[in-house]
Amino acid sequence: MKLTRRNFLAWAGLSAVGAVACEGFGIREGEFSLQSPVSLPEDLVRGKDNWYATLCRTCPSSEGIVVRVMEGRAKKIQGNPLYPINQGKQSARCEAGLQAMYHPERLAGPMRRSGGRGSGQFESLDWTAALDIFKGQLQQNGDNMLMVTEPLRGHMAKLVDRFTRAMGGQHLAFDAMDNIAYRAAVKNVFRQDSLPDFDLANTNFLLSFGADFLATWVSPTRWNLGYGEFRQGEGRKRGTFYQVDPRFSTTAASADQWVPITPGWEGYLALSLAYVIISEGLEADGVDVAALTDGRGVGALDAFRPDVAGARIGLPDRLRGETPAEFITGLAREFATKGPSLAIGGGSAGAHTNGLFNLEAIYALNYLVGSVGTEGGIRFNPAPPVDDLPASADVASLADWFSAAEGLNGGRTKLVVVHQADPVHGLPGSLQFRDALNRDDLFIVSLSPFIDDTSALADLILPDRVALEDWGSDIPEPGPGYQTLGVQQPVVNPLSDLDPRSSADVLLSMAGELDKQSELPWDRFEDMLKETSKELFELNRGSIKAGSADEFWNTMLQQGGWWDEKATSSARPNPSAGLFNTIAAKASEPRFLGLVPSRDTFHLVPFSHISLLDGQNAHLPWLQAVPDPLTTIAWQTWLEINDGDAARMGLREGDVVIVSSAARTSIRVPVYLTPAVPPGVVSIPLGQGRLDGPDAATGRRASESSNVMDILEPSQVEGTGAFAWANTTVTLTPTGTSIKVSKFEGIVRAVEVGNTEAERIIITVRPEEL
Amino acid sequence: MVTQRVDHKWGMVVDLDRCTGCQACVVACQSENNLPINTKDLFLQRRAYEWIRIERYWEGEFPDVKARFIPILCQHCENAPCEPVCPVFATYHNDEGLNVQIYNRCVGTRYCANNCPYQVRFFNYWEPVWPERLRNHLNPDVTVRSRGIMEKCSFCVQRIRRAEVTVERRERSNLDYATMKKRNFLPACVSACPTNALNFADQADVSGPVKEYFDDVNEHPHGEAHDRKTRGYRLLEEMGTKPNVIYLKKVDPFPLRKGVSHGS
Fold it and tell me: CA-CA distance, A283 to B221, in Å (whole number)?
């Protein structure tokens, strides 16, 4: 008889001697006892799992992830513990990369339009034929090409940039809620080109204006990491956090104090705080107020005295029992004396006509408290380790989109190539981008692995690989304070019934066939990454120690990237002379393009959905099913309205209202009542209202799933051309119909019901009681 | 040489002062534990499956208004109200402090869910359905529950078992907190939580982040809660269920209820 392990164990089990022998061999007793059905051995799972490092692409911050792969299938996504940006942590969005990969409605292979444009009728064709069509179009219309992509950094940015240049076309990166005004403010105030990092873990007093940084703004997982330490980090005092926001956002809910403000007046509040700090001499040691104000001192900010500004900016008559002027003065004193302090701003604060002024005023506060380039303050990142690799995702402004639409309408643009972007869904309705694309003399190529509102209009679809199957890279923005390059690698192959092709490889092969090798000398995208890997290897520093370029490359893939903690930025920018005078001179009220704000109108503050963002994740069931933290609503659009306003209009939860702006369309949305929206303000999340695509994104009625972008005024942030998306006033008209809101919360609003303090669900404690 | 079984007692500590309600734990759990996809209908029927969920409580009125978040999962009670009512012993308490659900014993009486004061048990009214292709990402370590079965948070028992089998039995080394963390044996929600609001370890592990709190809360039971040195408390503590999950009080410098001594 052949001696197998099974036979051996059978023999051993039969004999007491066997047990003794096994002890001698170091086999555990547990192996011999009969397994009861209540404790099934969990180690009987077939296959061995491997965890591969790569990058997540379900949100623009591109976190480092590790993917559990078992028998050729991706099973789980987690944060990459080594990756400096998220340090093993993840957002709710990361995980859904799995669903993108195994989505039932993924496009299987190339398709050509067979019906009218937008009819949704496509026929399959093979890659050779499809690429021939694409090549023909590039040959003929390459110099009249508009290439639209998601915001790009790293190698893909370099590739697309060179590709469009080689063809003679134009490249626009699409971001529904762009950071252009924020970027411009950083440039004007700190003279830095890339977005800064915030040292939240060491901040003591955090003052945030409009930025929903714990949910969606810029790099939320990174901010959450710092925020945890800010609250209860080892060996530090608990930080204090004020959120100034016209909307009670997820971030505002985490603040110690939410400060409601009329939309668009954040800059006035910031300068009012500066007034108090300067007039009371509370600026940090070594801050040269005379230089900041060109010698005028507090006189430069006289128009922003708390009693003047406080009356205008819409703070409640009593906030914590204080008048607006008292509140501003108290806040300024705390901000100035409880350092290290940090002022950040973004989101709706920068999305008004005066958004640039607002953000500059906010960020300039950091000079007064000495938080620029210091611990607990604003930190800057060094230049990328290799040249010629874009580290900032430059996106197109609304002004750019207007001229792009003109180019389409005028027939000058003949070819549109779209990669992982959905401008038809995400641009304001008044821009009429759908109509601009709906032309017979235009050829549209989509590189999307899914149907969305833009690819539904395409003539040719060349489905890309999804993130887990593809190569890529990222230079995180903001970086962690030192040089970092994240690498994305294919961790699994596409399923056999799918035939996607990496868009990067498609572009490179087109460049090759059209003799553009001088610009794009690589055969495959992987080669491009390897070339950079070699350059990094030759630098001979950082997180990877390797004896050869190959070893370096393999280690880089294992770790998910390369970084050098010693390669920090020494930037500690000094303010330009008279910075506060310059900013004060820019001060202006938000101007509204459409309806003039009045008693009968509401300010509309749209916001990025916590998991769907602008709608880019709307096809992923897990992310549709993520309840919004504040309302607990999932799978639909809603409008947040104050209890009092709703009562006045006779509205109850689920009542459908028509939301109209002066823009040409209106949308229908069910209302959700909250005690926390300021009277006169309503909020609607982005993300829903897709017309084409997988069932998860589209399969609902218009009143349940509408797109707030349709009604936004095409306002621009003055001085930048950025989209002022918070700059719309609307009217609400009840329709008389009502729907059941799909939410996690019960029928009754959840409030604390404990009879005593100790019976509360969430027990609170004052810091001084600890 | 027969290895000795190590007696663990697992526990979780949730710091409410760190939680931002971001939902990362919720999706991480759904992915790890093969939870059915929460369709819109499930939400409308109030039958959405979330082994860990974020509850939001409002307090006050505009402008003095607050919303507070609390992650709620199976509390793995020592005196679990769900256990004695199960007629078939499908739910029981194991010697590691876990409240365990044995799926193939469950006959679906739903008594346990009725008796759970924390509302953390979820019943499969229908066979869970995944589109064929999506089944590829199901976790092979976790049973897919069929129709008629009760399910709930298991503290990711599959990871704990893997840890015990790999580290204690195969490698014969010490399964301390650092090992749990480094080798990815912590529950999926804990591993995901970006603010480190969720912490998990053996309650006796001196190197772990939970011992201090369990010691304190156990030493000063409900009636003597004011003597506690930490912010620790148990959810609905007056019910005497003795959960193996401890919450740390939210710190609020500006409480809305003036004149009330918080946390006493």
Answer: 48
CATH of domain B10-248: 3.30.70.20
pLDDT per residue as tens digits for the range A634-657: 999 999 999 999 999 999 999 999
Instruction: Give a yes or no: residue A350 inside a domain.
Output: yes
Q: What does the block give as tokens for B175?
A: 């399964």
**A311 within domain boundaries:** yes
Domain boundary among A325, A344, A379: A379
> Which CATH number is A306's domain given?
3.40.228.10
Q: Are B67 and A45 a contacting pair at CB < 8 A?
A: no
Residues A616 and A652 in one domain: yes
Task: Mark yes or no for CB contact B104/A759 under 8 Å.
Answer: no
- Report chain A residues whose CB lies below 8 A from the CB of B18: 227-228, 231-232
Which residues constitute the domain of residue A402? 111-121+140-173+392-568
Pair A431, A560 in one domain: yes
| Whether residue A341 is found in the same domain as residue A232 | yes
CB-based contacts of A132, cutoff 8 Å, min separation 6: none
Tally of structural domains, chain A? 4
User: Would A756 be classed as within a structural domain?
Assistant: no
Residues A208, A200: Cα–Cα separation, whole Å: 12
- Domain shared by A150 and A296, yes or no: no
Tell me, what's the pLDDT at B1? 37
The two three-digit tokens of residue A386, written as one number: 């290799």
Residues of chain B with pLDDT under 70: 1-5, 257-264
Shared domain for A149 and A230, answered yes or no, is no
Query: Which ipTM was obtained for this model?
Result: 0.94
The verdict on residue A250 lying in a domain is yes
Query: Are the CB atoms for A395 and A180 separated by under 8 Å?
Result: yes
Cis peptide before A478 (omega within 30 of 0): yes
H/E segment holding residue A146: strand A145-149
Q: What is the pLDDT of residue B263?
A: 37
User: In the numeric block, which tokens belong to residue A49?
Assistant: 């799992």
Q: Do A190 and A165 fall within a single domain?
A: no
Distance of CA A380 to the CA centre of its chain: 20
Given a contact cutoff of 8 angstroms between Cβ atoms, the answer to whether A629 and A706 are in contact is: no
Alpha-helical regions (H) of A489-591: 503-513, 525-539, 549-559, 579-586
Across the interface, of B1, B30, B263, the residue whose CB is closest to A769 is B263
CATH number where A704 lies: 2.40.40.20
Cis peptide bond N-terminal to B81, omega within 30: no
- Report d(CA A98, CA A723) in Å as an integer: 32
Strands B10-15 and A205-209: unpaired
| A208 within 8 A of A261, measured Cβ to Cβ | no
- Residue A372 phi/psi, 5-degree rounding, is -100, 115
- Regions in chain A scoring below 50 on pLDDT: 15-24, 43
Is B165 near chain A, with CB under 8 Å? yes
How high does pLDDT run on average in chain B? Answer: 92
* A116 shares its domain with A229: no
pLDDT digits (tens, 9 = 90+) for B96-114: 889 999 999 999 999 999 9
Residue A102 is nearest to which of B38, B65, B137, comparing CB atoms? Answer: B137
- Determine the pLDDT at residue A598: 86
A4 CB contacts (<8 Å, ≥6 apart)?
Answer: none
Candidate from B67, B136, B254 with C-beta closest to A73: B136
Which pLDDT value is given to residue A6?
A: 63
Domain boundaries defined on chain B: 10-248
Looking at residue A1, what is its pLDDT?
Answer: 52
Q: Where among A568, A584, A617 does a domain terminate?
A: A568
Contacts with A, B 182-211, CB within 8 Å: 182, 184, 188, 191-197
Distance CA A333, CA A325 (A): 12
Bridge-based pairing state of the strands B64-72 and B53-61: antiparallel
Q: Do A169 and A184 lie in a common domain?
A: no
Instruction: Write down the residue that tokens 């303090």 correspond to.
Output: A757
